[in-house]
Design a protein that fits this description.
Elements: E1 4-10, H1 14-30, E2 37-42, H2 54-60, E3 66-69, H3 79-91, E4 95-98, E5 103-105, H4 110-143, H5 164-172, H6 177-183, H7 189-198
Parallel strand pairs: 1-2, 1-3, 3-4
Antiparallel strand pairs: 4-5
């Protein structure tokens, strides 16, 4: 049996949270709809999908289910992300209702297809504008003589950092880099070799005889 889910996301404003919930339940009541579950989270839109419980939301929705949000922006951080999520849900035959924009997206409805097409064009425009602004900013910095990128010699964080002391111990015992890589559970010894070389690890250890 199909179900109806509501998704509520706010920052830290409790009043906004209550307002969203009230708006959704009033809408559902007027449409004689019963909300089966509410996924509610209080977090910034800048956070990742996991923290915003988006993947959990998609996982709970099945063929024929309905999702209700107060406004479409609650679903994502950008137009492109919103469109991506909508397309995922439409493939699962999920109906999406956005109250404030008066949007009711259904896979088999022609007006819904038009809405998705328009949003897709906006998402593409957004990506192009971001790319253009980035290029213009980089060109402006170059024109001012500002060097781009990290300073020469900057050492970036590495997945091997957490094992650096163990790496030193193994090397001190005379264990080869290839074998050390296997002991530490890394699939490729080349990355470990480069890590040891760039960080001059050999000069930081004392041989154990």
């Amino acid at each position: 049996m199909s179900k109806i889910l509501a998704y509520i996301r706010t920052s830290t404003d409790k009043q906004d949270n209550d307002n969203q919930k009230l708006e959704i339940f009033e809408f559902a009541n007027n449409k004689s709809m019963i909300i089966d579950e509410v996924i509610q989270i209080q977090i910034s839109s800048r956070k990742g999908r996991l923290q915003r419980r988006i993947d959990e939301l998609i996982g709970k929705l099945n063929n024929g289910d309905t999702l209700i949000v107060t406004e479409i922006s609650r679903l994502g951080r950008s137009t492109s992300e919103v469109i991506h999520l909508i397309n995922i849900m439409l493939k699962k035959n999920i109906r999406i209702i956005c109250i404030k924009q008066n949007i009711d997206i259904n896979k088999h409805d022609i007006s819904s297809k038009i809405i998705v097409t328009v949003f897709s064009l906006l998402a593409e425009l957004e990506r192009d504008l971001v790319s253009l602004r980035t290029k213009e900013a980089l060109s402006a910095k170059k024109a001012k003589g500002i060097k781009l990128g990290k300073p020469l010699g900057t050492i970036q964080k590495s997945k091997f950092d957490k094992d650096v002391e163990r790496i030193k111990e193994l090397l001190a015992l005379g264990v080869s880099i290839r074998k050390s890589s296997k002991i530490l559970g890394y699939s490729n010894h080349i990355g470990l070799h480069n890590y040891i070389k760039t960080r001059n690890i050999f000069n930081q250890i004392e041989k154990v005889y």
